[in-house]
Design a protein that fits this description.
There is one protein chain. By secondary structure, the protein is α/β, with parallel strands linked by helices. It has 2 domains: about 150 residues, no CATH class; about 280 residues, no CATH class. About 20% of the residues lie in helices and about 30% in strands. The strands form 6 sheets. Strands 7, 8, 9, 13, 15, 16, 17, 18, 19, 20, 21, 24, 25 and 26 form a 14-stranded mixed sheet that branches. Strands 3-4-5-6-27 form a 5-stranded antiparallel sheet, with helices on one face. The chain is elongated and about 135 Å long.
Length: about 500
């Protein structure tokens, strides 16, 4: 009897232990399931947070892109006017800043310069229309619910961009991001060719080797040509084409004016009085009323190239050294630095310093020799340049200047230019010497003159974007480092 009771007692204890173990395992399983569910929820929330942040960042980059193309239809005419340069600097050039260095954006969070909100009917279509909305390319990520642009909180910066976005989930995940934009202040170039000294020599075969399309020619001294017919006449009726002057029966252009500080002289004219100049040729501009050249400050341009482009030193043999560290025997050839493989391969802003890396003087100018077949970029050479391109160049798309200065009515004609060797800006503190026949789409600036070697010629088509300070490959505005904040 006693054994039976002991056996039953042991069985009861075992049963209780089993039940406790089952309870523990059940609680552990429930905990694991709960943790798994929370982890899944956390993972989903994390993914949505990443998507929302990417959407907010992308929306900010779209705003940056508007500054680079303020005439874009997606930005709307009212917004385009807000983003365009409104002020004048001390030299009278358009700028985002006034003469006291204050930004044109003066709004606040409650009263911003630009405010678009999806709750407003008109703004909703502008923001989110699947075809024409400002952010239609981002619609697969979510929607932009609010956009503000107002004054920067840091002096010297351009503006603050405040974006609120929401993902497509139910409920939506929202993210608000603040970023501040800085600006790269490269002055506009308002002429196709600018020559500080005389252009051409009064000697048969050594006349000015430059011809200009679509923009102004500015010369500080005299201009020497063979015949008056070599200077293009201006006509609003001439068709806009990519033809060179050697392909025309007579030289005409819609936009070309020549502003000459001294005289226009001719080595070949009939006996007697020289032929009259056409109305777009303006000699004797110096001293009155004068000619305004577009100057790029040495220190400022050098700093911008170091931050947003490429900076090189040059040695006396013409080799280039990145970041200014000259190491004999390790220099790069100019063609290795500047060569573009094909149209679209842009080199950006390239600044090549003087021999001693100080401001240019007559005794510290190096010489850059270019034989590159095709190059895209903006070359600022603090010395002399010899241009002798190899090959026939490339065919590139270009846009003519507008036929009117009215911003709302600007229409630019697309043109295909052939045999182009340089697409961009070419600037030299000294002289530019041309060997062979070279073509440029952009602008040419020299602190000296343009010379011909062995009958070389330079034909330039002006890029009107340069007049607005827009240089492809160089940011007009950029996200300022350390100026990005996620609010929630």
């Amino acid at each position: 009897m006693v054994r039976i009771c002991e056996t039953n007692h042991q069985r009861g204890i075992a049963l209780i232990g089993a039940m406790v173990l089952v309870l523990i395992l059940s609680l552990l399983g429930a905990t694991i399931l709960n943790l798994s569910g929370q982890e899944a929820i956390s993972s989903t929330v994390g993914r949505e947070a990443v998507v929302a942040q990417q959407l907010a960042d992308a929306a900010g980059e779209v705003v940056v892109a508007w500054f680079h193309s303020p005439q874009a239809k997606s930005a709307g005419s009212a917004l385009s006017a807000t983003l365009a340069k409104k002020n004048r600097d001390v030299e009278g050039r358009l700028s985002f800043f006034d003469q006291t260095s204050h930004s044109q954006f003066v709004g606040t969070v409650s009263q911003p310069d630009v405010h678009l909100e999806i709750g407003a009917v008109s703004d909703s279509q502008v923001l989110s229309d699947p075809r024409t909305g400002m952010f239609h390319a981002l619609r697969h990520l979510g929607r932009i619910e609010e956009l503000k642009v107002y004054a920067p909180s840091t002096p010297g910066l351009l503006c603050t961009v405040d974006v609120r976005v929401a993902t497509h989930t139910n409920p939506p995940f929202r993210q608000s991001v603040l970023m501040q934009l800085g600006t790269v202040d490269l002055p506009p170039l308002r002429a196709a060719v600018q020559v500080s000294q005389n252009l051409g020599f009064f000697q048969l075969g050594n006349e000015a080797p430059v011809s200009v399309h679509w923009g102004n020619l500015k010369v500080g001294g005299d201009v020497v040509v063979g015949r008056a017919e070599e200077l293009p006449a201006q006509s609003r009726l001439v068709p806009v084409t990519g033809l060179g002057y050697d392909e025309m029966s007579h030289r005409e252009d819609r936009w070309m004016d020549a502003w000459v500080g001294g005289e226009v002289r001719m080595t070949q004219f009939p006996i007697g009085e020289p032929p009259a100049l056409t109305h777009n040729i303006h000699p004797q501009q110096i001293p009155t009323p004068g000619i305004q050249f577009d100057r790029w400050n040495y220190e400022d341009t050098k700093r911008i190239a170091q931050q947003h482009g490429h900076y090189f030193a040059i040695d006396r043999d013409g080799f280039l050294h990145p970041d200014g560290a000259v190491r004999p025997g390790y220099g790069l050839t100019p063609d290795a630095v500047l060569q573009s493989k094909s149209p679209g391969d842009h080199r950006g802003l390239i600044f090549i310093d003087t021999l001693d890396q100080t401001a240019p003087r007559k005794d510290n100018l190096g010489t850059l020799r270019l034989h590159t077949a095709y190059w895209e970029g903006h070359l600022v050479m603090q010395g002399h340049i010899v241009v002798a391109p190899i090959g026939s160049g490339q065919s590139i798309p270009a846009l003519s200047p507008p036929d009117t200065e009215q911003v709302s009515e600007q229409v630019r004609t697309p043109v295909q230019l052939s045999r182009v060797h340089f697409n961009g800006m070419l600037s030299a503190a000294g002289n530019i010497t041309v060997g062979g026949r070279a073509r440029v789409y952009g602008a040419v600036v020299t602190g000296g003159t343009i010379l011909s070697s062995s009958g070389g010629t330079l034909e330039v088509w002006y890029d009107h974007d340069f007049s607005r300070g827009l240089y492809r490959g160089v940011p007009l505005v950029y996200r300022a480092p350390g100026a990005w904040v996620a609010q929630y």
